[in-house]
Amino acid sequence: MVIPRLVLLGVLCVVEGAVQTGFYTIVAPRVLRPNSEYHVAITTQKTSQPTTVTVGVGGNQHGGGTFQASQTVTVSPYTTHIVKLEIGDLGPGTYNLTARGINGLEFINTTTLHYVHKSHSVFIQTDKAVYKPGHKVQFRALILNAHLKPSVTGALDVYITDGKGNRVKQWSRALTTKGVFSGEFQLSQSPVLGDWNITVVVMDQYFYKTFQVAEYVLPKFEVTIDAPAHATFKDSHLVATVYAKYTYGKAVKGEATVTVYPTYYSGLLQPIFQNPVRKVVPIDGKANVEFDITKDLQLGEEYERSVQIDVTVEEALTGRRQNTTFEVMLHKYKYKMELIKTSEYFKPGLKYTAFVKLTYHDGTPVQDMNNPVTVRYGYTFDHNAYTEEKHKLSKDGMVTLNFYPPLENQTVLWMEAEYLDLKEWFSTVSASVSPSNTFLQAVVKTEHPTVNQDVELEVNSTEPMKYFTYQVIGRGDVIMANTIKLADKKTHNFRFLATYVMAPVAHVMVYYVKEDGEVVANALDIELEGALQNFVNITTNSEETQPGTDVELTVEAKPNSYVGILGVDQSVLLLKSGSDITKDAVLEELRLYDSNLQTPYHYGFNFRGNALNYWWPGSATAREVFDSSGAVILTNGLVHEHFPWVYYRSVHVMEEAAVPNMPPAIEETAAFGSVAGATGSTEPAIRVRRNFPETWLWHMLEAGFDGKATIRKFAPDTITSWVISGFSVDPLFGLGLSEAPRKVWDETHSFIYHLK
């Protein structure tokens, strides 16, 4: 009797599956983080009644113990609900997302999540990047969450290690004020020289900041070179202008030695060393030096070649020396052509847009209303079957290419372009794949997407849609989700409000489920402006001042913000930078919360103020849509996967080999070996000057209810420029940073302020 009962049970299961109709889609972040919120978007389609869905995250921790968090929600047909799960202080382990449905749709589905320990951001600021023996190291650590707001974490550990890794100072169970911890450490007269580290430990997450301890002499003047960064082998005549001025703006008199030599870095057969060309000229704040690089260095024509210009200026009175380096790239052609793809894949049956960008090598757009750009393209290997088009360049040196690939039997798009004597083959664009040859595409219509403003998208499909669902993922979490019903439309526009938690990049997924269960999907990334919701403005009571004068600084930020002020001698920054918190560093930190594939254009490309603020991450299949957005999907529909052939054709100039690797850019204008020299004497003054700090301002202020705070400080005796920057932290508005520097200076007293 056992076998008949098993047969009966199997029959009942089949009948239940046949009666049950409809689909469910559950989208959630791929990454699970401790001490965070985890949001799950649940949608049901083609059902006749609401479905009760329970979603939960659970698993086993490697250190022992289990974790479980779940929520239950009732989802009506063609609606989307977001469920919030509170993730506590869990450690590394194996975790799953599980969903169970009853009533309308009965199902159980699970998938594995990827655990990432990072749930906080710590920004460490030091007053300088390099210290002498005996100096005081001052630092501040900002402990923030993924929303850039002060993180409530309790105590934290902070310690400093020297150049040999020895722990020399420690703060155990330290507390913060509005997310900020301030500390200082006095260096001995004979410390270990080299790279030291500040380590901040927040809930078993480690963050580091490196500073240098070294013997040095601050540079008293700065040397810069003004010269074209690019030239051609046929036109390599170059005039380099050398500038030398003290940090307070006065011209330096002395002698400039200019050396020019080629850099060996390519794979071409050539000698590793060639005798440099050297010229010595007098300088009084400024000097011009002329070279014919190709002729003077006896270079043959290649595709591309790097030439270094080294300048050393020796001050006439003291013999102090200061140097800098400038790189000139020699090219075969004076312009370059680049293909900007909006996606790595095109959707058959839907418009695909790409751009050809024609610029000079310094990034200046080519403006030519007479000579067109010839573009040839095709969906076949047969070069003779290509379609040829001629396009005029826009004033920004751009050509917009719109392709309309047929719906059937298209696998790859080949392109090449020609402008005057420059001809290039571009990398191919492959076709997306669908079992039913059905495709969906979303396009951003808003020109400059910004936080706290609506973003408009246009959704196009190769077949009429009855509805579609979209989700927005920002900083690794589902922020927004909705289902929009339609009346058999192939095109529909919709808007959503961009919030700061979506910035700097919002990942938008759009999809629907066909009658046969196939999930038709598309995704795109949208770069959003306005990731920082706080700000800092710093002003002084006067644009002119002198050493020893009382200076009043007024700081503005969001009301009740906690504001940090830093003011350092510009000579310190000439020696070594990197101690401050920058906007670029903050945005890069926010991107670490993403688990998606990154755009090759580093979030849009900007061309003379015109930015392309979206990029399709490229999805050959529906599965890749969710994978590339950092999401997982649970569904009883078909999420197509495909492993296509990949067509490779490198981007290159037809007549030449591939471009050789470029040498790293030289960032520092002063090396430690070049700043030492005779000390010399200072100019006489009526008042005896004794206050010569390298750090002038290091303060924390409370902005009042009006968002303002004032501080008065005596100007130091150093005749120099001061660079002043600030940050603000607030539980409601989060982190803010001061903008670019501005000058307040007095020529009479040769005293300058830079407000950063």
UniProtKB/TrEMBL annotation:
Cross-referenced Gene3D superfamilies, in alphabetical order? 2.20.130.20, 2.60.40.1930, 2.60.40.1940, 2.60.40.2950, 6.20.50.160, Immunoglobulins (2.60.40.10)
Example of a GO biological process term: immune system process
Oligomeric state and partners? Heterodimer of a TEP1-N chain and an TEP1-C chain non-covalently linked. Forms a complex composed of TEP1-N and TEP1-C heterodimer, LRIM1 and APL1C; the interaction stabilizes TEP1-N and TEP1-C heterodimer, prevents its binding to tissues while circulating in the hemolymph and protects the thioester bond from hydrolysis. Mature TEP1 and to a lesser extent full-length TEP1 interact with SPCLIP1; the interaction is induced by microbial infection.
Q: Which SMART domains match?
A: A2M_N_2 (SM01359)
Listed under GO cellular component are: extracellular space
Give the keywords, sorted: Glycoprotein, Immunity, Signal, Thioester bond
Q: What does this protein do?
A: Binds covalently through a thioester bond to the pathogen surface resulting in pathogen clearance.
The Alpha-2-macroglobulin bait region domain covers which part of the protein? 440-575
Name of the molecule in the record: TEP1-F
Entry-linked InterPro entries: A2M/Complement_sys (IPR050473), A2M_N_BRD (IPR011625), Ig-like_fold (IPR013783), Macroglobln_a2 (IPR001599), MG2 (IPR002890), MG3 (IPR041555), MG4 (IPR040839)
Select a single GO molecular function from the record's annotations and give it.
endopeptidase inhibitor activity
Question: Which N-terminal stretch is annotated as signal sequence?
Answer: 1-17
Top-rank taxon, per record: Eukaryota
